[in-house]
Write a structure and sequence with these properties.
The complex is a heterodimer of chains A (114) and B (113). In chain A, the strands form 2 sheets. In chain A, strands 2, 4, 5, 6, 9, 10 and 11 form a 7-stranded mixed beta sheet that branches. In chain A, strands 1-3-8-7 form a 4-stranded antiparallel beta sheet, with no helix packed on it. In chain A, 0% of the residues lie in helices and 51% in strands. By secondary structure, chain B is mostly beta strands. Chain B contains no helices and 12 strands. In chain B, strands 2, 5, 6, 10, 11 and 12 form a 6-stranded mixed beta sheet that branches. In chain B, a hairpin with a 2-residue loop joins strand 7 and strand 8. The model of chain B has no long low-confidence stretch (mean pLDDT 93). Classes of the chains: A mainly beta (114), B mainly beta (113). Chains A and B meet through strand 5, strand 9 and strand 10 of A and strand 5, strand 6 and strand 10 of B.
Chain lengths: 114, 113
C-alpha cells in the first residue's frame, strides 16, 4: 500500500544533542509537510516543501531545519533540542498545493528530550 | 486569516448514541473542509472531506455537510462504537495558501460500552 512512513516511532535525545527525524512516502506526492503536535493539541505547521521549494513558517524557530533530497524523503533536523521541543512530530503529504485532496499523515515520531 | 473553531471536549457517550461534533470556520472564498481522526499514539487519518458548498462527505458511518451559509462542517454519526474513541480534528485548506491546512483544537471522544 502507498503510504507515509516515519522513523523512528520513538526517539529519545539528550538536551542540546542534534537529532534527525525521517519521513518517506511512496505516494509520489509533490508536497511534504512537517507538523509539531503537543498533547493532542492542534498540529502546528513548521514548514513544507512543494517539490524542491522550501517554505518556512514565520514562527518556526531557527533550531528546526529540514531537507528534502528527493521526492520520496524528507528530514527534520533539530539542531539543539530543548525540553520544550518534546512533542509528536508528524509528517504529511498532499498531491499538490491546491489543498483539495487532504493530507496523508505518517504515524508520527514521539520525541523525548532528557 | 483562516481559522477553525471546534466544539470543546471532551465528549463522553454511551455505545450506540448519536454523535455531533460542531465545527465552524472563517475563511475567504471557498476552502476545502476536512475531518481527521487521531487514535492514541498514532498520526492523523483523513476521515472525510468536502470541497464545495452543499457537498456531503461520508466515511465509516460518519457524515459532514459543507454549509457555506452558516460556515459550518459538523461531524455526525448515528450510532457510535467503542472503537470510535479518538480525537477528531476539523480542518480547512485554501488554494490561496499553498494548500496548507488550518486545524481546529481537536475534540476528544470517549465511547463507553
Amino acid at each position: 500500500d502507498a503510504m507515509v512512513i516515519q522513523n523512528p516511532r520513538y526517539q529519545v535525545t539528550q538536551f542540546g544533542k542534534p537529532v534527525t527525524l525521517s519521513c518517506s512516502q511512496t505516494l509520489n506526492h509533490n508536497v511534504m509537510y512537517w507538523y509539531q503536535q503537543k498533547s493532542s493539541q492542534a498540529p502546528k505547521l513548521l514548514f513544507h516543501y512543494y517539490d524542491k521549494d522550501f517554505n518556512n513558517e514565520a514562527d518556526t524557530p531557527d533550531n528546526f531545519q529540514s531537507r528534502r533530497p528527493n521526492t520520496s524523503f524528507c528530514f527534520l533536523d533539530i539542531r539543539s533540542p530543548g525540553l520544550g521541543d518534546a512533542a509528536m512530530y508528524l509528517c504529511a503529504t498532499s498531491r499538490g498545493p491546491q489543498g483539495t485532496s487532504g493530507y496523508t499523515f505518517g504515524s508520527g515520531t514521539r520525541l523525548t528530550v532528557v | 486569516g483562516n481559522s477553525v473553531t471546534q466544539m470543546e471536549g471532551p465528549v463522553t457517550l454511551s455505545e450506540e448514541a448519536f454523535l455531533t461534533i460542531n465545527c465552524t470556520y472563517t475563511a475567504t472564498g471557498y476552502p476545502s473542509l476536512f475531518w481527521y481522526v487521531q487514535y492514541p499514539g498514532e498520526g492523523l487519518q483523513l476521515l472525510l472531506k468536502a470541497t464545495k458548498a452543499d457537498d456531503k462527505g461520508s466515511n465509516k458511518g460518519f457524515e459532514a455537510t459543507y454549509r457555506k451559509e452558516t460556515t459550518s462542517f459538523h461531524l455526525e454519526k448515528g450510532s457510535v462504537q467503542v472503537s470510535d474513541s479518538a480525537v477528531y480534528f476539523c480542518a480547512l485548506s485554501h488554494n490561496t495558501n499553498a494548500g496548507k491546512s488550518t486545524f481546529g483544537d481537536g475534540t476528544t471522544l470517549t465511547v463507553k460500552p
